Amino acid sequence: QVQLVESGGGLVQAGGSLRLSCAASGLTFSTYNMGWFRQVPGKEREFVAAISWNAASYADSVKGRFTISRDNAKKTVYLQMNSLKPEDTAVYYCRGSLGPASYWGQGTQVTVSS
C-alpha cells in the first residue's frame, strides 16, 4: 500500500532553518505531484508548496524562504525552510496526488520559538 513518511520536524528558533523529508513507497513516485501542507489546531490545513515533474509553486507566505525539491531515485520530496517565523509553527503534511488519487503522510511537528 501507499505510504508517505515525513521526518525532520522539530523545535527551532526564529530565523533558523529546518529541512523536512517525505519518503514515499507503494507508488510510482516520479509520476506523482508532491506537495507540503500545514495545519495548526482550530484552522484548516493550508497549502505550502508543490512540485510536479517540471515546476514548483509556493504559498505567498513562504515564497522566498522555503524551497521544495524532489529526488525521484530516492522517492523523496523535501522542504527546505529558511528564515523561519513563529507563524510557521504547525504540523506539516506531505501529500502525493495523481488525478483523483491522493495520499497523505502522518505529519511532522514544526515549532518555531520567538
List the uncertain runs: none
Terminal Cα span: 40 Å
Beta-strand segment tally: 11
Question: What share of residues is helical?
Answer: under 10%
CA-atom Rg in angstroms: 13 Å
Mean residue pLDDT? 97
Helices and strands: which structural class? mainly beta
Which sequence of SSEs, written as H and E, runs from N to C? EEEEEEEEEEE
Identify the overall geometry: globular
What share of residues are in beta strands?
Answer: over 45%
Number of helices: 0
Please summarize the sheet with the most strands.
7 strands, mixed
Question: Describe it for me?
Answer:
With 114 residues, this protein is mainly beta. A hairpin with a 2-residue loop joins β9 (90-98) and β10 (101-104). Helix content is 0%, strand content 56%. The chain contains no helices and eleven strands. Strands 2, 4, 5, 6, 9, 10 and 11 form a seven-stranded mixed beta sheet that branches. Strands 1-3-8-7 form a four-stranded antiparallel beta sheet, with no helix packed on it.
Topology of this structure?
Blueprint: E1 3-7, E2 10-13, E3 18-25, E4 33-39, E5 46-51, E6 56-58, E7 66-71, E8 76-81, E9 90-98, E10 101-104, E11 108-113
Parallel strand pairs: 2-11
Antiparallel strand pairs: 1-3, 3-8, 4-5, 4-9, 5-6, 7-8, 9-10, 9-11
